[in-house]
Amino acid sequence: MHASPLSRRAVLAGTAAAAALTAIPAFQARARAAESGATTAPAYRWRNAMIGGTGFVTGVLFHPTVRGLAYARTDIGGAYRWDDRHSRWVPLIDHIGWDDWNLLGVEAMAVDPAHPDRLYLALGTYTQSWAGNGAVLRSDDRGATWTRTDLSVKLGANEDGRGAGERLLVDPRDSDTLWLGTRHDGLLRSTDRGATWSAAPGFPATASASGQGVVLLVAAGRTVYAGWGDGDGTSGAVNLYRTTDGTAWEAVPGRPTGTSAKVPIRAAYDCHTRELYVTYADAPGPNGQSTGSVHKLNTTTGKWTEVTPVKPGGTTAGGTAHTFSSGGGSADTFGYGGVAVDARHAGTVVVSTNNRWVAVDTLFRTTDGGRTWKSLKDTAVLDVSETPFLTFGADQPKFGWWIQAVGIDPYDSRHVVYGTGATLYGTRDLKHWAPRIRGLEETSVRQLISPPTGTAHLISGSGDIGVLYHDRLTASPSRGLATNPVFGTATGLAQAAKKPSYVVRTGWGDHGNGAYSHDGGQSWAPFATQPAIAHDAPGPIAVNADGSVLLWTFVHGDGTRYPAQRSTDNGATWTEVPSCPKGATPVADPADPTRFCTFDTDTGTVYVSTDSGATFTKGATGLPSGDTQFKLVAAPGRSGDLWLSTKGNGLYRSTDGGATFSKVTSCWASYVLGFGKAADGADYPAIYQVGSTESITAVYRSDDEARTWVRINDDAHQWGYTGDAITGDPRVHGRVYLATNGRGIQYGEPA
Question: What pLDDT is recorded for position 319?
Fold first, then answer.
């Protein structure tokens, strides 16, 4: 499980990276109210609809000199600071806006032991050509405010190797000097606290356009070590370099080689014994690892010692055999990931396995420098009552998977935390573990429904955790994720407008790809049958107003689209609908059960059905085309009232069921649109939109049928990419639910 579903996918120029300094927040809109219809915004309060984690926590870092101060990073959901007084995480980069969505992934973080208020983040989610360059943020107040430096290189917080690190380090000899390891552009250095960056002098490894590059940086006394992830694992291959003066680098003598030590993942230094512990694997992870090892270097004598707790395949470093459940004959393959040393006790170290699916990942702990180890999983008592989704439909939760972030509190040796692909677990006694995730929300949200009746005001569909019934907004859903069947990623979610007790969902699952509910989403049953293509290409689904007809379309992960299928018996049988555009998202008329509409993005054509989805004919033509970022929605309670968001081409509306559309002049860019309860005295639902009526993309509300808009978010609350779903609450005017790609479900209300 992982939070990495967004499919949006530079070389250092000369010796200096571009350094554009920006005080944050600095996204000041140059209002164009006269021409756009935008007016002064009301004050809104924004919060997460609580789920709890749900994404890959790629790094956790206790400050070495301040009790209770810690930071966490995620692959697509920003960075957080631990608020020890209130026992919760505080998001630090929600100010990242639409245009900078690629910066919401955190590649690395660093603190300065000598200056506790200083914090540094290296941002950049993808390294592909379509993604923007990375950036470094620096703060003098623990992330409350930031100064930004734009880089001319790309970083990859949501790519392979994202759990390695840290790739950012404050030099132990000079707090003004920082080191930044990149994937494809070698090692960078800054001598002015991150304001400007240049290639590190004397670093010998050759950067390439592929691979991992510098995977970790760690200080051992006054020496800096750099892990190199592009070696081939053979004898003589270099996977670890060091410098004692910041200029001359050398390959570390005697370093481990071979397949089990091909890629260094993480390192930690025990200042009591002057030993550096390094975890290794044969691949950067978090997937694809099949072997690994743990080694320690005595930095005084230069002696290396292998201290692997359990070798993949069933033997320890000393040759003692270990037997594990084979899962029906499958090999017990895995790598090693996180490592943390106990600042209070010499020789006490915790390491994690990673990608261990047969025997399940664990933490190993030693108190004698790695001579003997104990698995903390073997005695663990897990309590996930605060976040019930963590069972993923099973009787008991797993101890974890994708464990590459591990930390030991420097002021409390029994306070250990570790990140997984879905949460952050913690203990105070090395036995009882529970999520330490409050305030940290990393879900990638795809669909939102706010029912007009019932217990829940919200039902959501997300990447990795399927569908959730939010019986409370301030607590993780008590039922956990929807089961029968369990989905990984949800691809469709729909409710019958005139029969809100009937809800359907589709998604990626191992035991069925579609399900229905007769109690508003509280419980589910799988469709009796499903089209054969549904297993490989489940797509969006629609249900007509009275719940008598289902229309399911299919889109493969590679973008291939397939004909729609229709059911009139609750999924017992299905019939192909060749006249419906392949892969197009169907929209049901909320008042007339015989009407569906859909939009063909290839041709800019609306297709209309007036026989309950059995056949479709062309409606309006000549609309914007050629981009998949189109959202067609129907206004609640009205027949034939359709709105079409067309990315940079504005907003269009039809009041004749899709036969014709006219452009809405009050905004010039629309990405996603939804509706909520009308304002007092208004006769049309409130409209909520992610779009542009000014010079920035923001969240807007209109109470007068889109004649005018007010911005309802602010510069501190932008959350990167927010173009998948938005809906108002049909029971509470002013309340809006917003899907983000990495910062969960945000909901706003007038303050």
Answer: 35
